[in-house]
Amino acid sequence: MSEKQPILGGAPAGGTGYGGGGPPAGAVPGAPPGAPATYQGQMPAADVKDDPNMKAPGPSAPPPGQLESVGGYENIGFNASALPPPSYDESERGAPPENREFKAVPTITEEEAREALLSFVAEHCCYGKKAAQEMNYTDLKSTSAFHYTLETFGEGRTTAWAYEPFIGQTIDVPQNGPAPGPWDIQAQPGALFQNGKIEIEVPHTAGVKPCHECLATGRIRCFRCQGRGRLHCHSCNGSGRESYYEDGEHRHRTCCHCDGSGRRRCYTCDGYGMITCTVCDGRASLKFYIKLTVLWTNHLEDHIVERTALPDELIRGVSGQISFEETVPRVWPIVHFPDQEVNMASKNLVTKHASSYANERILMQRHKVRIIPVTQAYYKWKDNDANYFVYGFEKKVFAPDYPQKCCWGCSIQ
C-alpha cells in the first residue's frame, strides 16, 4: 500500500497575501475528480489567530439510527456498558474446611538484635555506632504480627459500537449468523491474579458505512484556520511589521515571516482550508462493529494485627512465615486461627468481596496469613533507657529513639 498523502486542495483564487506565497498549484493530492480546490463550507469572515498549541479535536460519534440493530445487542451505544455475569451457583462451592494447620516463626537472639542495629546505623551516615556496640540489653520481647490478605480475581465485560477506517478488510456481517452473547465468547487471562485487558470484535456484527465526519469525501475543514487557509501572523500579531533594536534605537521593518501581509499560509492544511478526515483517515468509508472489552482485575485487601508501637505499614514491606495459604474459586473465612482478630478480619473481607463486584465474574480467590516476627529490644546506654524494634525475616530496624544521632557534622564514631 502506498503512503497516504494529506488530502488538501488546489490554489485558492487570488493566490496572494499568504506570506510565504499561495498554496501549491495543481490538483489536491488524493482528492476525487471534480472536487473543489479549497474548502467551500462555513468559515469565519476574518482570519483567525494562530495557536501553535492547538490540537485536533477528537472524533465524533455517528448520529443515532445510522447503524442496524444486532440481536442481543439492541441497547448498546458508543459508550461502553457493563454486562452482569451469569449467576454463580452456590452449590458448586466446596464445604468449609474443618481445621487448618498454622505454622509458627522463630525468635532472635541478643547477638542478632545487635547485628541488626549495627546494620541499621551503617545505613545512616550521621548515626554513631558506639551506642550500638556498647549498649546493655535489659530485655528482649518477641511477639508476632499477623498480615491477612484476600485477593479476588474478577472478570468484567463491556460492549460498545466501534469503528475504524475501511481499507478493504474482511467484514463479518450479521447475515453470517447470529451474534454470540457477550459471556459466550471465549477469553482467557494471561495469568491469575494479574490485571489484564483484551478487546474482541463480536462475530457477525460488522458492516461498512459512509464516513459521518466527512460525508464520505475523505476531507474535512481544517481545525486550525477553520477553512480559510490562512492565519493571523503570530510573529507580528497581524500588523505586517516587526520591531528590532539597533544602534541604541527601536526600529521597524517588514515582518519576514509574512512578507508584510500580516497573515500567513496555514501550515496544517498548507493553505487549502481542508485536511484529511481524521475519522476515516481519508478513506471515506468506515467499518462498524461491536467491540467486546474484557477486563481482568485483581482486587486485594488486607488487615494487619500488630499490638506494639511498631507502625503497621512497616509490616507490609517485609517477609515472614506464610502460615496459611489457600487458592480456590471461592474461599471460606478462616475460623481456627489462634488470634481471633485475624478470624474476624477474614470473615469481614470474604463477606465484603462476595457482594462488592456485581458486574464481574469471580474466577479465583486467594487468601493467606503471614506471620512476621517482631522483637522489641530494651537497652541501657549511659543515661539512656530506650528500646527499638527488629522485624521481618530481613531483620529491619525501627529505632526512632536511637541515642547517637547527629545532623550537623557527621563526626560521631
UniProtKB/TrEMBL annotation:
Q: Where is the composition biased (Basic and acidic residues)?
A: 90-99
Recorded superkingdom: Eukaryota
Q: Where is this region: Disordered?
A: 1-99
Q: Where is the composition biased (Gly residues)?
A: 11-24
Its protein name is Protein SSUH2 homolog
Highest classification ranks of the organism: Eukaryota, Metazoa, Spiralia, Lophotrochozoa, Mollusca
